[in-house]
Every structure is written in structure tokens, then in C-alpha cells.
Write a structure and sequence with these properties.
The chain has 428 residues and is α/β, with parallel strands linked by helices. 40% of the residues lie in helices and 15% in strands. β6 and β7 form a beta hairpin. One of its GO terms (biological process) is response to antibiotic.
């Protein structure tokens, strides 16, 4: 059984070893790149390598990540040469202050952002690669961004933004306080943010002060509405907030795709739990959907490529509790019988697996445990959690296996040798 997959697996050492994946992607417009944790160096390295090849060889238009829109939009404008040209990538990424900050404020992303800025510098303005955040959490930051823009360009809409800000003001930018204070929609801030969104939708065509002003303004208003709904329901049991979040992320992705035009090509960076099709995990048992499932359903399987990641053991950056100080933690050997343990037992070689319809009878079509490490992690509890039952060759179109991994390099932890880690040599 352990040798079944060899015909579709290849070693993984350099850029050229991604050739089978580039062939599998072919002319697909939507490539979603996962990760089995938010704190593993190699996942960021290989996603960057894939991303560079997609940009250089297949002319993808933008990267969309599991991050907040306002912070990522500043990176977008920086790499396109529109704003903050007196700053560095390090300075901009240090502004990512929502926990877990290390997801984007790390040296690996510094290297990516610097490369993107250099890459864009040789392109016409309308062909430059974008960088956007898909997540729903940035209620307060999005309202502040709206107020800043509208006060200069649309005084009437600015009044509505001010009313929304005043509604949320008593909660001190604390979503849990807001959620706990609500007993019904009648005493929420829902009407304030809906009125603001409706006004902005009517006015969007006049927000033409720069090429992306309308996109940015409407997206921040959409976040205000969806974040209010998310936080309003986070203390209850009647609404699946996971589904609210992933639906918002796909709606955001579609909004960006529309902005770039009919043939737009998107690269998405998110955790495996978001990009791996939920229908082939136990998530479906609780009614959970996710980004990978929705993109496949909306865009078609032929036009969507989902790439999962996994590893056997190593180290990772995480916290012991939500909001806790970050730590470099040991990731123990994968659970017996898990996908990662099976791959390790066959070989300790890093490798790329490509799945297609001829693989239906292989072992990876069984429902097996697949490791998933979150931002909160307790290595000692591995045998009780951190695994998602998965049909590997249905959940993903390809899978990158790294046998031994190292922890990510957060910005506030100075890299070894007092210089940026040499993470992304680029040669074929």
C-alpha cells in the first residue's frame, strides 16, 4: 500500500521540481495554496516559490491571503508604487498588530514583499501584481479607513461612517464586549453599517481618485457589515460563524477578480482548513463549508487547483493560548496511521504529490487523520486533537510533503546572524 502513490510523486528540492505542479495547474485561473500551520518556515518558502513561478510563467494577477484587508491593502499600494515609498517592507509589516501577528509580520514575508515590489517596478501600472487580505475581522480598522477616505471625498457618506463609529465606540474596539452586550438585532449596530454600505454602493462610481479607490472603499464597507454580523453571532449557537467567515472570504475574492477583469488569475494563501475542500473531511458532518469547496463549486474543478501541505515533525511558531506570547514549539512525530506518518514511513524525502482521476483506488482516497496546527497549539495534546479526517486526493489536487520543518521567523525575533534569512534563492 505504501508504494501506491509513487507514480504521481516526485522529489522536492528546487524550483525545477515544481514542474509537475505547473503542468497540473495548466491554464487554471484559481490556485489555492495551503499550510498545515501558520508558523512553519517551509510552507512559506514553498508557497513563495510556487507564487513566483505562477507570476513569471502564467501571469497571475494578484495574491489574496488570510489576513486583514486594511493592513494588506497598504502592502498592495507599497508594492505597486502608489504609497509609503519612504518606508520599508519591515516597517509596513510591523503595523500588523492583530494577534497572531507572526502570520504576516515575519522575515519570510519581508523577502516576498521586497521581491514583489522589484518585480512590479518593471511592469506598467495596470499590470502590477496586487496583494490583498480576505478576512472579516478588521471591523474597527475598516471603519477608520472609511472615515479617513470619505471625510475627504464624500462628506455625506462620511456622516454615516461617523454614526457607525459612534455606535461601536462604547465597546472600545473589543468584539467580545460588543457580542456580549447584544440580546437581539434591535440593539446592534447592524442598521448603521448597512446604511453606510448602501450609500457607498450608490456612490462607488465617483470614487475614482485612484485606480483602486472604489474597490477599497466598498470592501471596507462590506467588512463593516460582515464583521458586525460575525461578532454579533459569535456568542450564540444559531449561526455558523465559520461559514460566515469563509463565505465572506470567497465574496471578497470574487470582488477582486471582478476588479481585475474576466480573465483574472488569483493566488490564494490560507490554512489547509480553508483551502482544502471541506466535503472530503469530517467538517461536512457539522455543516461547515470552506473557501476551497466554494471556489471549486463556483469556478469549476478544471479552473481551480487546491494545493495542501503537511509535515512529519519539526518546530513551529504558535501560542499556548489566544493572545499569548509566541513560542517556538516542538512538533512531535505524526500520529500513527496519519497521512503524515504513512508518507514518512515510505520515505523521509520531501516531495510533491499530484492527484488525478486515475488515483481513485489508492490509499489516499481513504478517510485518514491529517495534521492541522492552529495559532494556539499544545504539542502534548497531539493525540487528542490537531488532526482532521481527510480523503487526501479528493480534498486537494496536489500535496506538498515536508518531512522535517523549522519554525517561522517572526519580525520581532531577530534572524540568525543578524540578517534576513536566505529563504528564497531564485534559480531554475
Amino acid at each position: 500500500m505504501l508504494n501506491d502513490y509513487k507514480e504521481i510523486a516526485s522529489g522536492l528540492k528546487g524550483f525545477q521540481d515544481l514542474d509537475p505542479l505547473m503542468l497540473r495547474i495548466d491554464n487554471a485561473h484559481h490556485v489555492l495554496l495551503g499550510e498545515a500551520s501558520h508558523g512553519t518556515h517551509e510552507y512559506y518558502v514553498w508557497r513563495t516559490r510556487i507564487t513566483k513561478r505562477l507570476l513569471l510563467e502564467k501571469k497571475f494577477n494578484f495574491i489574496a491571503v488570510e489576513g486583514d484587508w486594511p493592513d494588506c491593502y497598504r502592502i498592495n499600494r507599497f508594492i505597486k508604487g502608489y504609497a509609503d515609498q519612504d518606508k520599508t517592507a519591515v516597517e509596513l509589516l510591523k503595523a500588523f498588530d492583530r494577534w497572531p501577528t507572526w502570520m504576516w509580520a515575519n522575515w519570510e514575508i519581508v523577502a516576498l514583499i521586497d521581491w514583489l515590489k522589484e518585480y512590479n517596478s518593471s511592469l506598467p501600472a495596470n499590470e502590477r501584481v496586487g496583494f490583498y487580505g480576505l478576512d472579516v475581522y478588521s471591523l474597527w480598522e475598516s471603519l477608520e479607513a472609511l472615515m479617513d477616505y470619505l471625510s475627504k471625498h464624500d462628506p455625506k457618506a462620511a456622516e454615516l461612517a461617523e454614526e457607525a463609529i459612534q455606535c461601536f465606540e462604547p465597546y472600545g474596539e473589543d468584539e467580545h464586549r460588543y457580542a456580549k452586550s447584544l440580546h437581539s438585532i434591535s440593539n446592534s449596530c447592524y442598521e448603521a453599517v448597512i446604511s453606510l454600505l448602501q450609500e457607498i454602493r450608490k456612490k462607488a462610481p465617483i470614487y475614482d481618485h485612484d485606480p483602486e479607490a472604489a474597490l477599497n472603499t466598498e470592501q471596507n464597507a462590506e467588512i463593516a457589515v460582515n464583521a458586525e454580523r460575525y461578532y454579533r453571532n459569535m456568542m450564540g449557537f444559531n449561526v455558523n460563524t465559520w461559514n460566515l467567515r469563509d463565505t465572506h472570504m470567497v465574496d471578497t475574492l470574487n470582488r477582486i477578480l471582478k476588479f481585475y477583469g474576466n480573465e483574472a488569475k488569483a493566488i490564494v494563501w490560507e490554512h489547509n482548513t480553508h483551502i482544502g475542500d471541506a466535503r472530503y473531511t469530517d467538517m461536512k458532518d457539522s455543516g461547515d463549508i470552506n473557501v476551497g469547496q466554494l471556489v471549486r463549486q463556483q469556478k469549476g474543478k478544471k479552473d481551480t487547483v487546491l494545493v495542501g501541505f503537511g509535515s512529519y515533525e519539526g518546530t513551529v511558531i504558535a501560542g499556548k493560548n489566544w493572545g499569548a506570547a509566541i513560542e517556538r514549539m516542538y512538533v512531535p512525530a505524526a500520529r500513527p496511521g496519519s497521512i503524515e506518518e504513512i508518507l514518512h514511513e515510505e520515505s523521509d524525502e520531501d516531495r510533491l504529490l499530484i492527484f488525478d482521476s486515475s488515483n481513485e483506488s489508492e490509499w489516499y482516497n481513504e478517510m485518514l487523520p491529517h495534521r492541522a496546527i492552529g495559532v494556539v497549539y499544545h504539542p502534548a495534546f497531539e493525540k487528542y486533537g490537531n488532526y482532521v479526517p481527510t480523503k487526501l486526493n479528493s480534498r486537494y489536487d496536489a500535496f506538498i510533503y515536508i518531512d522535517q520543518t523549522k519554525a517561522l521567523h517572526p519580525l520581532h525575533i531577530h534572524p540568525d546572524g543578524h540578517k534576513v534569512p536566505e529563504t528564497f534563492p531564485f534559480e531554475y
